[in-house]
Amino acid sequence: MGSEVTVILRLGFEQRDCMDQYEKVEKIGEGTYGVVYKARDRVTNETIALKKIRLEQEDEGVPSTAIREISLLKEMQHGNIVRLQDVVHSEKRLYLVFEYLDLDLKKHMDSTPEFAKDPRQIKMFLYQILRGIAYCHSHRVLHRDLKPQNLLIDRRTNALKLADFGLARAFGIPVRTFTHEVVTLWYRAPEILLGSRHYSTPVDVWSVGCIFAEMVNQRPLFPGDSEIDELFKIFRITGTPTEDTWPGVNSLPDFRSSFPKWGAKDLASVVPNLDSAGVDLLSKMLCLDPSKRITARSALEHEYFKDIAFKMKSLGSNSFAGSSGRLSTEENDDEEISRLAISAYQAREEEIERKKMEVKEKVEAQLGRAEEETRRLAQIWEELEVLGDPMRKELANVRKKIDMANRELKPLGLSCQKKEKEYKEALESFNEKNKEKAQLVSTLMELLTESEKLRMQKLEELSKNIEPTL
């Protein structure tokens, strides 16, 4: 147990073994090495985030990932990096107390489809990501796990902050050898995918480029389902690298000369909603050769950001310089970026209000036309009401005439029906009599025919009996 306490004291936090100050509200997720809770500070009533680290999982005490995150975040005080407020050691568990932000960039993109139609907001988010990463890099820290889920957003100000430094590493010169099993697959740089263990700050810039394209397109740029699939998805857009385009690529452990040979696509067709300056910046972020990839600090000075009214030169001299052990807090710069974030948020709110007013005016105009139509119909109704009595009287008279005619026609109809019946009966009687007459005639004809036959027969017999005389 002493080793954990020693670590906490060495990192500059007071030894505390009581969680009474914090009340867990609900579980909100899983971090790199533990569970994350939404909680409340009973003293200040502030909502905070608690990361619980299970110490019994490692024989040596505090996990190296936790030590790394605590040490880095304690030193890195910046407006675009989540703030570590406290460390509590309790019952074989270590709790990291962070400021609470309940929205991340992934949730924001999923819940706000119109986000991609707001280039200024995308620009402000990208600028803040780069600003946080440039700060990390200027103090020899790689984040190594950049993805939309690790970028937290303040709903009130739209300020964006980097979070989850569990995989972050401090680096020196020369660049150290690291493991390549880092960074979520879709945001993993090609040099890591090809097995390089000598990588540096460009891996974070690649991840930022993937996030940039995802904000613009509202879908991941390289959603591979395996390392080789991820590589091929990258090469289909950037083109398959060669020694000419990326010197040294053939010597990387996982590069194969048998890889399919794809040509580079026009990046503007991949992100059709991005302006030319944005496409240029993205192409520099997604350069396959890490030695030629733009740095975070240079990206902040790119033409793409010229219209967000930020004085980069004066900011740059104070924000990213300095390599001493203790890091500056950059309070003036943080106030400026917060002011810009709030300004962008207010501008968006004003745009929403303007659209609401346009809709309201259209609705009111339609209601005005509807009221006018209602008045016209009411006037016609009044005119019909005036004519109502004479028209009703006239209709009543017509009805009476029809009824009278019906009464007069009714007896006639019955009489006609009777006559028609008598006619039909007479016709049937006549036909019956004719039928009988025809039968008699037929019988008579048969009798006459038979009589004629007998007469002829008698004549023939008589003629045979008479002898001829001389």
TrEMBL record:
<keyword id="KW-0131">Cell cycle</keyword>
<keyword id="KW-0175">Coiled coil</keyword>
<dbReference type="InterPro" id="IPR007033">
    <property type="entry name" value="GORAB"/>
</dbReference>
<dbReference type="GO" id="GO:0004693">
    <property type="term" value="F:cyclin-dependent protein serine/threonine kinase activity"/>
</dbReference>
<dbReference type="InterPro" id="IPR050108">
    <property type="entry name" value="CDK"/>
</dbReference>
<dbReference type="Pfam" id="PF00069">
    <property type="entry name" value="Pkinase"/>
</dbReference>
<dbReference type="GO" id="GO:0005737">
    <property type="term" value="C:cytoplasm"/>
</dbReference>
<keyword id="KW-0132">Cell division</keyword>
<dbReference type="GO" id="GO:0051301">
    <property type="term" value="P:cell division"/>
</dbReference>
<keyword id="KW-0067">ATP-binding</keyword>
<feature type="domain" description="Protein kinase">
    <location>
        <begin position="22"/>
        <end position="305"/>
    </location>
</feature>
<keyword id="KW-0547">Nucleotide-binding</keyword>
<dbReference type="GO" id="GO:0005634">
    <property type="term" value="C:nucleus"/>
</dbReference>
<dbReference type="InterPro" id="IPR017441">
    <property type="entry name" value="Protein_kinase_ATP_BS"/>
</dbReference>
<dbReference type="GO" id="GO:0030332">
    <property type="term" value="F:cyclin binding"/>
</dbReference>
<comment type="similarity">
    <text>Belongs to the protein kinase superfamily. CMGC Ser/Thr protein kinase family. CDC2/CDKX subfamily.</text>
</comment>
<dbReference type="Pfam" id="PF04949">
    <property type="entry name" value="Transcrip_act"/>
</dbReference>
<dbReference type="InterPro" id="IPR011009">
    <property type="entry name" value="Kinase-like_dom_sf"/>
</dbReference>
<dbReference type="GO" id="GO:0051445">
    <property type="term" value="P:regulation of meiotic cell cycle"/>
</dbReference>
<keyword id="KW-0723">Serine/threonine-protein kinase</keyword>
<protein>
    <recommendedName>
        <fullName>cyclin-dependent kinase</fullName>
        <ecNumber>2.7.11.22</ecNumber>
    </recommendedName>
</protein>
<keyword id="KW-0597">Phosphoprotein</keyword>
<dbReference type="GO" id="GO:0000307">
    <property type="term" value="C:cyclin-dependent protein kinase holoenzyme complex"/>
</dbReference>
<keyword id="KW-0498">Mitosis</keyword>
<dbReference type="InterPro" id="IPR000719">
    <property type="entry name" value="Prot_kinase_dom"/>
</dbReference>
<dbReference type="GO" id="GO:0010389">
    <property type="term" value="P:regulation of G2/M transition of mitotic cell cycle"/>
</dbReference>
<dbReference type="InterPro" id="IPR008271">
    <property type="entry name" value="Ser/Thr_kinase_AS"/>
</dbReference>
<feature type="binding site">
    <location>
        <position position="51"/>
    </location>
    <ligand>
        <name>ATP</name>
    </ligand>
</feature>
<keyword id="KW-0808">Transferase</keyword>
<comment type="function">
    <text>Plays a key role in the control of the eukaryotic cell cycle. Component of the kinase complex that phosphorylates the repetitive C-terminus of RNA polymerase II.</text>
</comment>
<feature type="coiled-coil region">
    <location>
        <begin position="342"/>
        <end position="380"/>
    </location>
</feature>
<dbReference type="GO" id="GO:0007165">
    <property type="term" value="P:signal transduction"/>
</dbReference>
<keyword id="KW-0418">Kinase</keyword>
<dbReference type="GO" id="GO:0000082">
    <property type="term" value="P:G1/S transition of mitotic cell cycle"/>
</dbReference>
<dbReference type="GO" id="GO:0005524">
    <property type="term" value="F:ATP binding"/>
</dbReference>
<dbReference type="GO" id="GO:0010468">
    <property type="term" value="P:regulation of gene expression"/>
</dbReference>
